[in-house]
Amino acid sequence: MPTAPLASVLFVCVHNAGRSQMAAAWLSHLAGDRIEVRSAGSAPGDAVNPAAVEAMREVGIDISAEKPKVLTADAVQESDVCITMGCGDACPIFPGKRYLDWKLDDPAGQGIEAVRPIRDEIKTRVEALIAEIDAATAE
To answer: How open is the CA angle 120-84-96, to the nearest 5 degrees?
Structure first.
């Protein structure tokens, strides 16, 4: 019998082409099916940033098939935690949701050397998020 995810997390950035895609991939990779993962952008780009794809490929995670998605109120309503990454006030606010704003450099237009530290910072933050979700559900 399948178990329900512990939580649902939505990552939002402007283009849904770099930071939010890497964060969603890290969370899916590290938490598996234990946490439901979504990502979206307030002004989605045409494709995922090639430097983000390459940076994630270096750590064994393939995001090359991902496509930027538009942020919808439904995606926010269906999520327990909404994490914004430089998209300002574009994310609608609903009662009972947890909102976090991660200040991260934007990988848009950056080469792989600049994207690697962003990727690594996102991993660290995602690991901490998983620990928080695990602790909250253990109470």
So the answer is: 125
